[in-house]
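Tutorial handout. Part one gives the primary structure; part two gives the three-dimensional structure as tokens.
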Amino acid sequence: MMNEKERFQKAQGEAFRTARKDAKLTQAQVVKALDKSVMWLSDLENGKTAIMVYDAYRLCELYKIDFNELRDMITVRM
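Part two.
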């Protein structure tokens, strides 16, 4: 059974993946824009890693969503 942190990371990852796809961006486009690795984004979207607030902010800007929308997307998945 997953603990609260694991459930949050999984929900967060699903939310970021959905937002990326809704923005019609590929993983390659995102990592190029953020100067990150594909592994970083893959781990994030699969709930295997936490994200720094700055990186979350940059992703929200890239995906054209705000933190409140992101929070709502995570909440419904928990």
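Part three, for discussion. The chain has one domain: 4-77. Residues 44 and 70 are 14 Å apart (CA to CA).
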